[in-house]
Specification:
Blueprint: E1 3-5, E2 32-35, E3 38-41, E4 54-57, E5 67-74, E6 81-88, E7 97-103, E8 112-114, E9 120-122, E10 124-132, E11 135-143, E12 152-158, E13 163-167, E14 170-175, E15 184-191, E16 210-218
Antiparallel strand pairs: 1-16, 2-3, 3-16, 4-15, 5-12, 5-16, 6-7, 6-15, 7-10, 8-9, 10-11, 12-13, 13-14
């Protein structure tokens, strides 16, 4: 194992993580916490009344090339929610990107379905590979149970010429692709894309968190 955060402390470890993506500044509105062994990021309007993106990443702190990467997480509900787990590097204009998990609860079925609470629940996610900012090298959707109802494991085995994706330890996608750049780890709760625009039906607050029990990475053999 080369990297591990079990979120057993009482705050985000700033030696490992930043709470904003490199081209933005940290939004001061509180919408994340480390408590009870988990990182929680939730939908929240800021002082301007808008929902805002929150990114937790290891940019400038931890990078890795190849290996096995895994989180255990429970996803939020609501129109517009777009939680993700990915590897990335902003190297010039190339921007290699490996999206291990992206979910769009507000998207048309089977991306999401309306639950008994009236909110949109995520029932599918996707893995996406970008060799650079303009070349998509792979895309695969996986229909799932309600990903907000329980914790699930999302993982990638990244090899020199192949990537293999896993859901709860079961392989669901393999693609032959070469991506040799080191990348940092990203966890985020953004809004939009296939999930639509959040609105008053999107539950705010900690009870509706993108909740991550751990992030782990192993080096390749």
């Amino acid at each position: 194992m080369a990297f591990s955060d079990e979120f057993d402390g009482s705050s985000l470890d700033v030696n490992i993580w930043k709470d904003y993506i490199w081209y933005e500044t940290s939004n001061p509105t509180k919408n994340y916490v480390v408590e009870n062994g988990a990182l929680k990021i939730w939908p929240q309007r800021d002082g301007s009344g808008n929902f805002f993106n929150r990114t937790i990443d290891t940019d400038g702190r931890y990078y890795q090339t190849y290996g096995y990467f895994e989180i255990e997480a429970k996803l939020p509900v609501g129109k517009g929610t777009w939680p993700a787990f990915w590897l990335f590097n902003h190297i010039g204009a190339r921007r290699p990107e490996i999206d291990i998990m992206e979910a769009y609860a507000g998207g048309a079925a089977p991306w999401g379905v309306t639950g008994s609470d009236g909110a949109k629940h995520p029932t599918m996610y996707a893995a996406t590979i970008w060799q650079d900012a303009s070349v998509q090298a792979g895309f695969k959707k996986l229909a799932t149970p309600d990903l907000s109802a329980a914790f699930h494991k999302y993982a990638l085995k990244w090899e020199a010429n192949k990537q293999t994706y896993y859901f709860d330890g079961v392989e669901f996608y393999t693609v032959n692709v070469t991506m040799p750049d080191p990348m940092f780890i990203m966890l985020d709760l953004w809004y939009g894309s296939a999930s639509g625009t959040p609105d008053d039906t999107t539950p705010q607050g900690k009870a509706n968190s993108y909740e991550v029990n751990y992030v782990r990475a192993w080096k390749a053999n």
